[in-house]
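PT: before anyone asks, these are the final sequences, not the draft ones from last week. 514 residues across everything. Please model them as a single complex and drop the result in this thread when it's through.
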Amino acid sequence: MNILLILAYVLLFLAGAFLLYMAFRTDDRRFIYLSVAFYVIFPVLVTLRLPTSISPEAKQLYDAVEALPDSSTVLLTFDYYPSTLAETEPMSRAALKHLFRKNCKVLTMTTVPLGGPSIAERVTREIAGQYGKIYGIDYVNLGYKANYVAVLKGMGSSIEAIYPTDNSGTPLSQIPMMKHIENYSNIDFIFAVSDNAIVDYWISIVHAQYGKRVGAGVTAVSAPQYFAYLDAGQLAGMLGGMKGAAEYEMLVKQPGSAVKGMTAQSLVHLFIVFSVIAGNATYLAKRKRRGGEKA
Amino acid sequence: MKTTVPIITAFLSGLVMLLVFFFNPEKSAIGRLEPEVLSWVTIVGGFTLLLGVVSIVRVNYGAVKRRKEGWKYKIATLISVFAMAVPAVISPRVSPLFGTAPGSIYDWLFNNLDAPMMSTMFAMLSFYIASAAFRAFRARNAEATLLLLTAVTVMLWRIPMGEIMLVKIHHSLPEIINSYIMNGANMAVQRGIIIGAALGAAAMSLRIMLGIERTYMGK
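LR: through. Structure below.
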């Protein structure tokens, strides 16, 4: 590793420690904000590639997709708001790269009205362009329809009944790829990328009632609740937060923004851990002093 | 009338969805009701969005008219609503700038204003969490200490730098955390929550169907 890079990061740690000390001395939280800003911005400017280990749940998801026969039909969902793009968009990008590499037919949709269709359109078109895929033949964006429970349930009978047109208003009957896709029975795998509780419904409605295999990419904060579904075999695999996205990027051998973002996340996590330790050390010292004064 | 009609509608809708679950949609008339009812639900869902827009316009317009506190921000809300909605609902046949397709006004506003603003708002959480970590996360008693230690361990486990540290302490520490915390204690608690929430949802559905629960009518 470059000695200058190590030196830069050592200096960054020292700067953070100094700011934490200043926050402690002055009781001014702005020093803490400044430290966090440093730790987020610095790795973007000075890139440090950290080794990312692959978790069993990410490997499970990768293997499930890898096991699909070439040209399978996969439903990829963009069930997330723009606020969590940093965690979820890399998952969608890595999933699309994996699916297009396997020549899968990709059907995209969203249950999120605020931005979901636009994100799906932007990301899918960009990745499809890289793999020479054609809209309507290799992929279709269904867009958004209100009331997700009804949408998920209704697609089990007829996708066209729920989505008479695609996201840009073209009737599904005029789209070549959709001629062979009537309902879930024509879909081989569901890859749900989400920042909300919709994955529960993909499991309880689509997996449980229609027997479709579901894999999920979720935010770090919601990942713990899906370990139960994974253990029960109701989820084929899972990506949790930016770490999960980075793992999938590594698995598809296409490192992207998640792998890059892990350095910033590492630094901020470490800073928070040190803040907790420092905060508790001062708290215990104060308590001891107060106890001594009373005695 | 205002109470009876919604209760009857809720009861019948719930009953139909309950019954169709047990019938084959291809072989029975009751089963065939399912796609029909679900199409209705998505259409009604679309109208609720419209209702939301009407409501936000009414509330904010009223506040601006009466010069209530923060009325200037409400003007910004109203401008934002119309700036996003009007170009999106005009047919793209008029001009490619309308509609929601890539290259449209709506798409540009979403990608260049809405998405960065929402991401910024969410990103600000990290500053507050860091500040709270330093000022508020205290090991005041045994339970708080346990929570704190678990949080710190999981935070380290989720990052490459932390994983390197944990491996230095013991080579299989990351696997131990995965097995005992995430796939052990965490999973057991989550199962309890999931089962409890499902039972609660079933009970609530029954209460709504039978007209016992009426809060959805504003009562």
